[in-house]
Design brief:
Rossmann fold, 6-stranded parallel β-sheet, about 10% strand
Length: about 325
């Protein structure tokens, strides 16, 4: 029986304003690749400036996927993202192009690269209610002890009530702990991911963030927000509460001046970048690169990617023989 090698998947991750998009485009041109966005805001239509989507001219040069997928007032789940991204990545490779997954939404990247088994993690409100009742009756120590018996790996990481209850719920419904389910799913992933995280020295990263926030306003972020309202989208829609759009809404409503909007957007984007860095540091098998020297980091990524593609070719040849 032939064992088909897993699809090579190049991943360019990192905090906002670290240079991911430009790096991905350059790599796509080098390796004849296509880009799959891993950004939870770029899936929304009509939201271009505030989400820093690449322009149409760039998209004409290098195909981009998972942009403009849903309306700004539509829900878009992790499961929907993973299902669509998985299919697109496999199709890109089938057409003999290199799939490049890039973005700053760590959960999207992890779901694809680790093959999150979302269909194998059922939920049941009655089961959850019973576990919560048991927690109230017996306490935290008892529930942690139960989880340790069936899934010690998850018990060591789950440090709050919600996660402990969720892990026990999954075990009761499937007879398997979340750690075992995730481990098997990861082993069965169709992708062999090479993950790079770009970053910059903190002062430089914050400089880029502040310049980007100011540029978004100059480019017309407030006008983009007003057009969304004119299209009929509610200011309360989840996407309209996203970074940049919430700030534009506060300015349009007269709660902030333009200068206050920019300052608050810069502050909140810095905070978001810190959360992104923490998330990616918690992922396994990530190669961190200081992108303050773009040429050096591109040479490193190119060399590693070429090596992975060469290894894939050798495996295929050996299988054919």
């Amino acid at each position: 029986m032939k064992v088909i090698p897993k699809i090579p998947l190049l991943v360019i991750a990192g905090p906002t304003a670290s240079g991911k998009s430009a790096a991905a485009v350059e790599l796509a041109q080098i390796f004849d690749g296509e880009i799959v966005s891993a950004d939870s805001m770029q899936v929304y239509k009509y939201m271009d400036i505030g989400t820093a989507k690449v322009d149409l001219a760039t998209r004409a040069q290098v195909p981009h996927h998972m942009l403009d997928v849903v309306e700004p007032d539509e829900d878009f789940s992790l499961a929907q993202y993973k299902e669509q991204a998985d299919k697109i990545i496999q199709d890109i490779w089938r057409r003999q192009h290199l799939p490049i997954l890039t973005g700053g939404t760590g959960l999207y990247i992890k779901a694809v690269t680790e093959n999150y088994p979302l269909q194998q993690l059922p939920f049941d409100p009655h089961c959850r209610a019973e576990l919560n009742r048991l927690w109230d009756e017996r306490g935290r120590e008892y529930m942690v002890s139960r989880l340790q018996q069936v899934d010690p790996e998850t018990a060591a990481k789950a440090n709050d009530r919600r996660r402990i209850i969720r892990a026990l719920e999954i075990y009761q419904l499937t007879g398997r702990g979340p750690a075992e389910i995730h481990r098997q799913a990861k082993a069965e992933s169709p992708f062999n991911a090479l993950i790079f995280a770009l970053t910059l020295p903190r002062p430089q990263l914050y400089e880029c963030i502040e310049a980007r926030a100011e540029a978004m306003v100059i480019q017309g972020l407030i006008g983009e927000y007003i057009k969304l309202i004119e299209r009929g989208y509610s200011p309360a829609a989840k996407a309209m509460q996203g970074l940049g759009y919430y700030h534009a809404g506060m300015c349009v409503a007269g709660n902030w001046t333009r200068e206050e909007m920019i300052a608050n957007l810069q502050r909140d984007t810095r905070r978001y970048a810190k959360r992104q860095l923490s998330w990616f540091r918690g992922m396994q098998d990530v190669i961190w690169l200081d992108h303050s020297n773009p040429q050096a980091s591109m040479e490193k990524i190119s060399a590693e990617t070429a090596g992975k593609l060469q290894l894939y070719s050798e495996l295929v040849i050996n299988i054919d023989i």
